[in-house]
Amino acid sequence: MRAIVTVGIGLFALRAGADEDLLARAAAANEAKRYGEAHDLAIRAATAPRPEHLDAKAAAAWDAHATNAWRLAGSASCFQKERSGALQASAHLKKDDVQFIRFACDKNGVTITDEDVEVWASPAASEIAAAQGAYAATKYAEAKRLALQATAEDPKLSAGWRLLGSASCWTRDKVNAQKACDHLQPVDQETVRSLCARTLGVQLKSPRVLR
């Protein structure tokens, strides 16, 4: 067991040294405004395989290193106005670090919301994107089908329920509109209810309050 731990620590030292070099190079590229290079180097540092058999101190150091790499990758994406790269980085960070990415993006004219990050990190991200595209193209039946898949894949994702509710209103599907409404917060519940009532004359029950 001691030999395994020793080998693990040795591998950590070797990998950490190499990845610290990547991170330092990424920081230097970022400082020189070579944001594409900075992003690519930071991603390599952030996604390096985590060694096994690390003690608590080494594990904390590795995690801090990965956090710094994702922060750098995200901010470099903001400077390139690459929204998808900023979202990718944000999905690996905690709230305070996400706020750092959002601030960097705001300064560069790129808006990222909490829901954007939530959707990006969701297993239903591809279904949500496809459903949004279908809805924007007024293909409401297709949007509803994709939103149903999204809510099955990730029942906690409000974007999926909101899409399902809106698409269901347009397809006069009162059952799924009500189901969606019951999974939404009050503001979104009222949006779905108003859409159904105003546009299609479909009356939904008063929404319950989510806890």
What's the structural blueprint in terms of helices and strands?
Layout: H1 2-31, H2 35-46, H3 56-79, H4 83-90, H5 95-107, H6 114-121, H7 125-136, H8 140-153, H9 158-170, H10 174-181, H11 186-200
Helix pairs in contact: 1-2, 1-3, 2-3, 3-4, 3-5, 4-5, 7-8, 7-9, 8-9, 9-10, 9-11, 10-11
> Based on DSSP secondary structure assignment, what is the total number of beta strands?
0
Percent strand equals under 5%
Distance between the termini: 48 Å
Number of domains: 2
Q: What is the arithmetic mean of pLDDT? A: 87
Continuous helix count = 11
Structural commentary:
This protein has 2 domains: 2-111; 122-200, Serine Threonine Protein Phosphatase 5, Tetratricopeptide repeat (Alpha Horseshoe). Helices cover 74% and strands 0% of the residues. α7 packs parallel to α9 and α9 runs antiparallel to α10 (174-181). The chain has 11 helices and no strands. Mean pLDDT is 87; it is low at 1-14. It is mainly alpha-helical.
